[in-house]
Amino acid sequence: MKKSTVMNTLKKRIREHKYKFTTQRQIILQAFLSSKENHLSAEDIYEMVRGENPDIGLATVYRSLELFTSLDLVKKLDFGDGRSRYELNDHNLSHSHHHLICLGCGRVIEFTSDFAEEIRSRIKKKNGFNIVDYQLKFYGYCKDCQKQHPEYSEKEPQI
Amino acid sequence: MKKSTVMNTLKKRIREHKYKFTTQRQIILQAFLSSKENHLSAEDIYEMVRGENPDIGLATVYRSLELFTSLDLVKKLDFGDGRSRYELNDHNLSHSHHHLICLGCGRVIEFTSDFAEEIRSRIKKKNGFNIVDYQLKFYGYCKDCQKQHPEYSEKEPQI
DNA sequence: ATATGTGCAAATTTTTTGCACGTAA
DNA sequence: TTACGTGCAAAAAATTTGCACATAT
């Protein structure tokens, strides 16, 4: 889909909820759209955005990310590196995507799967819990790290 | 299993790796074993542990948790409340347990499932990624919150 | 016009670190 | 005995907040 179309959708979502579509909010969303890396920290976004608007404050970035998260435009993630990371929430994806986190080099690889519906109804029955979203993270070793450290290919008992 | 047996296993694991089994480390592990709540923050543990040993420092709690996590005795979790939470890693559980996080009241419910092995081999084939561990979090609404807010029972499109 | 949002600086909260002293093995 | 661990206080890092000013609707 075209980026400008995505931006219009985001704009619409923000306005639907009676929030203002400010320059700052637009620039921050733009940063997500133009970034090659899609797991951005508040600081990352702050740095990217300063090029476009040097006066923007880090607090605004945090406040925007909080708003976007509450509107479900963005997902807040934690890869265990001490800061939160954010990614655009792609509602068009029919299969949710998840993260493979390499314990060797720290790289985060995306991966799609659609086991959700099945588990969803199972849980609804068992716990009465109504699932709206989920996050799945895998920890392990990527191909490259396994090549460099053959012991990383062993099947560990923990799982 | 008896708690004293569990403690002995933990002690053994720590010593196997040439770390000392100090009073502080024991008290902290004891806190996990005796706590009713099993998702503890560093601060929670600090408070619990001060009863037993008032001189213990918060830094020691953090350092111990880091060590325990690296030895896989403990898992570090993030429920999005701004602080890390830790739980004893129960290797005896053949089916891993996961978390249902209620967006209404914040309650965290545990839930077991064993879909892992299946996904594990699928990923190994597809990405060459060797999975050692994984974390699965579900967000939604618990029974009680659905009772109070019928709209929480609606099936949301995001998943 | 005005409710909502922003920038700035300060405050808060969580986690980490340096160093002199203590202790398990 | 001695390498490893701890307490304390200070630092660092991440996030939040208060307030006067700015702006989208």
From TrEMBL, chains A, B:
Q: InterPro entries this protein is in? A: FUR (IPR002481), Fur_C (IPR043135), WH-like_DNA-bd_sf (IPR036388), WH_DNA-bd_sf (IPR036390)
| Co-factor note (free text) | Binds 1 Mn(2+) or Fe(2+) ion per subunit. Binds 1 zinc ion per subunit.
- Name the CDD domains for this protein: Fur_like (cd07153)
Annotated Fe cation binding sites: E117
Which cofactors does the annotated protein need, by name? Mn(2+); Fe(2+); Zn(2+)
Cite a single Pfam family from the UniProt record.
Answer: FUR
Keyword annotations of the record = DNA-binding, Iron, Metal-binding, Repressor, Transcription, Transcription regulation, Zinc
Name the domain of life this protein comes from.
Bacteria
Q: Does the keyword Ribosomal protein apply?
A: no
Per the record, the GO terms for biological process are: negative regulation of DNA-templated transcription; regulation of secondary metabolite biosynthetic process
Family as reported in the entry's similarity comment: Belongs to the Fur family.
Protein name, entry field: Fur family transcriptional regulator, ferric uptake regulator
Q: Which organism is it from?
A: Allisonella histaminiformans
